[in-house]
Design goal:
By secondary structure, this protein is of the alpha+beta class. Helices cover 36% and strands 18% of the residues.
Length: 744
Amino acid sequence: MEDSVRLRMRILAVVAVSLFLALFGRLWYLQALQNEEFQQVATQQITRSIRTQAERGQIFDRNGRVLVENRLSTIVTIHRDENKQALIAAGLESKAERDEFRAEMFATLARELSSSGQLTKVSQLERAFTDRSFTDFEEIPIARDVDEELLIFIGERPDVFPGVRVTQDVVRSYPFGDAAAHLLGYVGSINQTEIEAKENLYLIDDPDSDDPTVKIQDPEGKQYRPNDEIGKAGIERFFEDDLRGIPGTRSFLVDNVGNFVAPIGEDLDPRPGSDVHLTIDIDLQIRLELELKQALDRAREAEAEQDEPPFNAPAGAAVIMDPRTGEVLAMASYPTYSPADFIEGLSQDEYDRRFNDPFEHQPLVNRAIEGAYPAASTFKPFTAIAAENFDVFGWDFVEDWNVYTSDPGYWDLQSCKIDFTGDVEGALASGCRKRNAGDQPMEGVDLQHSLTFSSDTYYYKIGEAFWVAPDDQINPDGIQITARDFGFGSASGVQLPNERPGLMPTAELMRTRHEENPDIFPRGQWTSGDNTNIAIGQGDVLVTPLQLANSYAVLANGGTLYSPNIVTRVEPNPLSNDVEVTFEPRVLREVNIPTSIEQVILDGLLGVNFLDKFNAAQPPGTAFDAFNEPGEGGVDFPLAAWPVAGKTGTAEVVGKADNSMYVGFGPSGSTYWSTPDNEPEYVMAVVMEESGFGSKIAAPMVARMFKAIAENDIDRAISQDEADEFYALSASLELEAPETGEEP
């Protein structure tokens, strides 16, 4: 028994000794044989690179005046690695000690920033410090445009603010303030969705791979990372790939725990982005914005008729184009905003308060291209062209275009087949009676005067004829076909984001909508009443102010539809490999305007602003007061020398006051009106929401704008730098003036 126990003990001893020998052998191997290799790993240095942002390209107006540029901003930054190393050097070895120091530092820094005018919370600084989209070796911006006193305060206290410094960065600057905000747009920090959309933009073939499908990031590309700036709206967004420069790199060595060792010296300088030159005239742009705002103010002061909705006039838009080239000369939208507000970034609460509050009426929306409105009576010339193109004039109950008729102020639909004699209310309730505005009767109405007096009844007949005539005689979609030729129902192609196409309704569209969603679109059957509505630009007809201006440009230039240009060229920086891109006039199509009625339509549109000298019994055109009666809210316009052809529009909006509209072009003229027959140089469209009759609000605004153009009375816009220079010079002259007892 003892021998057996003794044997087992010996075996256990041998096993134990063997295990210890193996352990000691491994330790000796690690410490003696591999010690040198581990030391190399422990002291290994790693290359790191930091990107340096490139300046964005500038934006100029058509005359070379800078609309958006870059300026140096004094910013406060914090450097995580420097902060950590400084605290360790100060004896704060533990993370808890360093966190406690930073909490006090952030409290002091927030207090000083807020006192200097940069309202800052401690939580903002803490979030910035821990933002992992920045490396430990990058300057993290925490405040911009700080004053000189704060710069000195921080610079003199490195022990209080370790790793915090005041430096300079390049930010966007707007020499003309808020002018053309919707056109220019703004920049902001890129979000994840935008990063994903851009990640495959700059790829090249991998030189180390024979597989052509293998791609790598182009080192000369414009890759994006979190916190990079990107265009969010307007030109800044549409031409982002041109305006953005190529980032540079700064390379250096760090040790295995991330501490800075030394610069490498293989830096790549950033290359600025391309400059974008616009068709906009900043002088005209600022005047247009002013006139639009003042016209809306006037509308709000007007008294609505009893039981009618008030004129709230919350918003509007206006566009001026050159009909000869399709260039946009000015584009205004109200309410507006300041692109400079986005330089420092906005909190979500602040963003929602400014831009998502329904009472603020969406100031970020460019209503000139994103606002879709009923075309109302401005649509009538295109219905007339459709009638001539599709042989509606002279068909059955539609008189020929040169025949004078009596307009009783209403039209009873022939398709109703019901006798409503004496039952006016029943006819109206059924939709079988269509009325002029205010049931206004008119005498001596032919095509020309239907435009001058804006007879709805004249166009109700045309609209119904298109629908009730046999298809082999008249195409029921003739109005829509003609409207599309003039650009309605599709985006114009202007070089701006978010353009809406408007809407040109058809029977097929109504049926399809109803079948797909009968709850939202309960009606699926098109009727002659729908066709009469679109004939006067109502119903579901929706147009943008830019579409409206562009369609009238076709009337002004004799039949050429352009895709509007808002940019003339993109000019690359000399340091880049890019080539200059120019934008010549872009012709979409030639439109058939029947020669038989082309001059008649022009004379009718000219008559809108004139008093008929051939027939004193005829009333004046719908915009006569706007162009001839200063006492009635209009102007004394030089129509004889600078004739304007135009059309008023009053668009009905359910539950609200009407939208006020006017579109016109000039200088025009004709022999009928004994005026010079000019080639129009300007076309202008304006839409003002909930502002009443087009003749009362929109037309006077266009008259004031065109009068300033005709009389060369557009003031030169003064940039902020020019204003500062002027006031500085004035102050200097006052100081240098001799004391004569007289005012300088």
